[in-house]
Amino acid sequence: MKEYFNELISTRQSCRDFNDKPLGKETVLEIISSALLAPSACNSQPWKVYAVTSPEKIKQTALAIGVNGHNKFLSKAKAFIAVAEKPAVLKEGVRFDRNHFVKYDIGELIAYITLKAKSIGVETCIIGMVDQNLIKPALELKDGELCNIVIALGYSDCAIRDKKRKPFDETVTIL
Ligand SMILES: Cc1cc2nc3c(=O)[nH]c(=O)nc-3n(C[C@H](O)[C@H](O)[C@H](O)COP(=O)(O)O)c2cc1C
User: Fold this and answer.
1) pTM value?
2) CA-to-CA distance for 47 and 137, rounded, in angstroms?
3) Which of 14, 17, 18 most suits a substitution to test ligand 1, by most atoms within 8 Å of the C-beta?
4) Nearest-CA neighbor of 87 among 103, 73, 99?
5) Which of 53, 76, 92, 174 is deepest in the core (most CB within 10 A)?
6) Where do the structural domains in the chain lie, given as residue ranges?
7) How far away, in angstroms, is 57 Cα from ligand 1 center?
8) Nearest CA owner, ligand 1 atom 31
9) Which residue ranges of the chain lie beneath pLDDT 70?
C-alpha cells in the first residue's frame, strides 16, 4: 500500500500532450464515482461535477478554458471533468462563514480525481483559467454554481518528469 501510494503520487503529473487513444465515458464516470468519496467540511460536498464526454461539449469546454490562447494542448483532451462550487450547508453552530471551506473541499475533490485517474492509467491536467462567460453555456450551469476548475483527461506516451518542488526545509517548519 505504502509503495503503491508513493508511486502514484510521484508519477501523477500534469499532462499537456494527450495521444489519440480514446477515453470511454464509463472510465470518466468511474473516476468521478471514486472521487466523490473525497472529504469535505461537515461532509457538505459543496460541488456539482460535470462529466464532459460528448464531442460537441468537449469542444465548447476547451474553448472556455483556453483563455487568451493559453492551454493549446486542450484540443487533444479526450474528456473533461468540470467541478462547480455550490454554497455549502454546514452543521448548525459552526462559527465560520458557510463558504469558508468550499475551496478547500474542491481541492480535495480535484486531488481525488487526478489520483484516481492516474491509478487506472488516465492522465490529467488541472486547468484553472476558466472564462466564466464561456463556461456557463458550455456546461449549462445552474444558478448558484460557479466553475473555476476543469480537469482535462486522456492518455499519453510522455515520460515521467522529475518533480520540481521547493526544498523541504524551505517549506516545512518542524516545531
Ligand atoms: C488550481 C490549479 C490550476 C492549474 N491551472 C493550470 C492551467 O491553467 N494550465 C496548465 O497547464 N496547468 C495548470 N495547473 C497545473 C500546474 O501547473 C501543475 O500542477 C504544477 O506545475 C505542478 O506540476 P505537476 O502537476 O506536473 O506535478 C494547475 C494546477 C492547479 C492545482
Assistant:
1) 0.97
2) 18
3) 14
4) 99
5) 53
6) 2-171
7) 22
8) 126
9) none
